[in-house]
Structure formats: structure tokens, C-alpha cells
Design goal:
Layout (H helix, E strand, L loop, with lengths): L2 H17 L2 E6 L5 H13 L3 E5 L1 H9 L16 E6 L4 H13 L3 E7 L2 E4 L4 H5 L4 H39 L1
Antiparallel strand pairs: 1-3, 1-4, 2-3, 4-5
Helix pairs in contact: 1-3, 2-4
């Protein structure tokens, strides 16, 4: 491959990485054409971009980033595919569901919510990761809960007083 071609590919990888806040490094080696096609369809359906990359070119693209991705470098061995997504846990769920029947893809590492997750044993953790928006929604629900309880208690008390008054007036 010519040097110009390599630099073009590195720029493309760098551009794709900058478009998505979360990415997973996976091993999809060993999947046949039909399984790979099925995985690509699932990724498309779940809005996950799947890109097969050369490790050396990916490393060079990661080197150009403002984020220090050096923790991921030891995982850049063998066949590597990038799974990129706007939602933090969608690729993890997709990997788990697809690998149940196909034994691949295997999680090598992930960069999710500005944190590194290294190794296949991190898959369950990644499935349970909540996005910032989900955490904000949970926090708002917790803050609203006491106010809802007060309003509910006041309405309940009013209904009780109304029932007592109505019973007394009937006597």
C-alpha cells in the first residue's frame, strides 16, 4: 500500500472516530460471510457503525487524537473491527446477543463515557453503563419524588376530609 493511501485511510479513521463519542474494539475474525453480513445488518439497524481496520493504521489515527488512547494499544493485535455509536451501551448489548450464537464478536476494549474498558470481562459492565442523559433523567426523577409525595398526601387528606364531612352531613 502506498504511503499516500495509508495517510488517506488514517485521516478517514480519524474522521470517523471524531464523529462518535463511544467506540468498541472487537475481534470478528472467524465469522463467515453470512454471519458477517448478519452482524452488519444488526449494526445498521441499531445505528452502530462497523468498520474493519488495520491495527497499525488505527493506532496512528488514535495517536493523532487529543485524547491519550495508549491504554488501548496492547489490544491492537489480531483482527480488529471498530464499533462506533452515539449510545454508550448499544454495541455491548449487540456484541452479547450476537456472540451467544456465533461466539464472535469478542470485546477487546472500549472507550465509553470518556473511560477505558479493557478485556472481554468488561462486557456486562458496559451493558449497564448509563449515558449522561439517562443519569440526568434519573436524578430529576429522584428530585421530583418528594414533591410528588407531598402533593399526593395533600390530595389524599383532602379526599379523607371530604368523606368525613359528607358522612357527618348525612347523619
Amino acid at each position: 500500500m502506498k504511503k499516500e493511501d495509508k495517510s488517506t485511510i488514517i485521516e478517514q479513521i480519524e474522521s470517523v472516530l471524531s464523529e462518535y463519542p463511544h467506540f468498541y474494539l472487537t475481534d470478528i475474525g472467524g465469522l463467515n460471510a453470512a454471519q458477517t453480513s448478519e452482524l452488519r445488518k444488526l449494526c445498521y439497524k441499531e445505528k452502530v457503525k462497523l468498520v474493519v481496520v488495520k491495527n497499525t493504521l488505527l493506532k496512528k489515527a488514535l495517536d493523532r487524537s487529543t485524547v491519550d488512547f495508549s491504554e488501548l494499544y496492547p489490544t491492537l493485535k489480531g483482527e480488529t473491527a471498530l464499533m462506533l455509536s452515539d449510545m454508550a451501551n448499544v454495541p455491548a448489548k449487540l456484541i452479547k446477543n450476537f456472540s451467544n450464537k456465533n461466539k464472535k464478536p469478542v470485546l477487546k476494549a472500549a472507550y465509553v463515557e470518556e473511560s477505558f474498558y479493557i478485556g472481554e470481562n468488561q462486557l456486562e459492565t458496559l451493558i449497564n453503563v448509563k449515558s449522561k442523559n439517562e443519569l440526568i433523567a434519573d436524578l430529576i426523577a429522584l428530585l421530583q419524588s418528594p414533591a410528588k409525595n407531598v402533593v399526593s398526601a395533600l390530595q389524599s387528606g383532602a379526599n379523607t376530609i371530604h368523606g368525613v364531612l359528607q358522612t357527618l352531613s348525612e347523619k
